[in-house]
Amino acid sequence: MELALGKLQRLCERLGTGLLSGFHFRKNAHLYTEQIYRAGVQSTWIVVFCLAFLSVLMVVELSIHMKLVLRQDSLVPAFSSVLMLRELGPVVACLLLTSRVGAAMGAEIGMMKNTEQLDALRVLGMDPVEYLVLPRWFAGVVASVCLSVFAVAVAILCGAGIASLELGISGQQYMQSMFLFVRGIDGATCLVKALVFGTIMPLVACREGFRCGPGSVGVGTAATSAVVRGAIGIIIADFAVSYFMQRL
C-alpha cells in the first residue's frame, strides 16, 4: 500500500513540475482537445441518462417513505435536490467516468508501455508525463466539472417532471421548495467534489497504465485496477470533502 501511494505521489510531483514549467497548450492543443472530446463529449449521454433516471427513482422513493413516516411528501423537492447536488450528482457522474474513461486511459498507456512507445517518447526527448498525463488530467477535470453540473441540472428537471406527473407537485412548487433549502454551499460542494474526483480519476488510471505488466493480461489488469482503485479513491475523497464542507 505504501509503495503504491509513493508511486502516485511521485506521479503527482512530476505533474506539478509540468504545470509549473508550462504545458504548452498551443503546441499540444490537439492532445487536450482530443482528450476533452473523448472524456467529456463522448461520455455526456451515459452520465445524463443515468442521473436522470436516478433522479426519477429518488423522487418516487422519497415520496413513498415520507408518506409512511411524515404522512406527507411536500419536502421531496428539497431533499432530492440537496442530495443530488451534494452527493449523487458528482459521485455517480465521476464513477461513470471512471468506469468508462479511466479504464480506457489505463489500457491505452499500458499498451504503449508494452509496445515500447513510452521509451520512444523518452528517446525523442519528450516527457511521458507531460505528453500523456497532463492532457488526460486536464480533460478529466474539465469533463468531471462540466458533466456534473449539466447532469445535475437535467436530473433536477427530470425530478420536477416526475413530481408533477405522479405526486401532483407543479414545477413552480418544486422549484420554490428546492430554493428554500438549497444553499450556495451545496452548489460549491458539487463543484469541489467534481474537481477532486476529476483529478483522482486520470491520475490513478495513468499510474496503473505506467505500471502495467507484460502482455494482454497486463493491459487488462491495468484497466481493471484503474476502475477499482479510482472508484475507491473517489469514495474516500467523497467522505473527506463532505466532512470538510459541512463545517464551513
List the helices and strands and how they pair.
Blueprint: H1 2-21, H2 29-39, H3 44-69, H4 76-114, H5 117-123, H6 128-167, H7 171-181, H8 184-210, H9 215-245
Helix pairs in contact: 1-6, 2-6, 3-4, 3-6, 4-6, 4-7, 4-8, 4-9, 6-8, 8-9
Task: Describe the protein's architecture and organization.
There is one protein chain. It contains 9 helices and no strands. With 248 residues, it is an all-alpha fold. It has one domain. Helix 4 packs antiparallel against helix 9. The radius of gyration is 21 Å and the shape is elongated. The protein starts with a helix and ends with a helix. The N terminus is likely disordered.
State the helicity in percent bands.
Answer: over 70%
Largest sheet: none
**Radius of gyration, rounded?**
21 Å
User: What distance separates the N and C termini?
Assistant: 32 Å
Q: Please write the string of helix (H) and strand (E) elements.
A: HHHHHHHHH
Q: How large is the count of helical segments?
A: 9
Q: From the helix content, strand content and strand pairing, which structural class follows? A: mainly alpha
Overall geometric form: elongated
Low-confidence stretches: 1-5
User: How many domains in all?
Assistant: 1
Number of strands: 0
User: What amount of the residues lies in strands?
Assistant: under 5%
Q: How confident overall, as mean pLDDT? A: 85
Oligomer: single chain
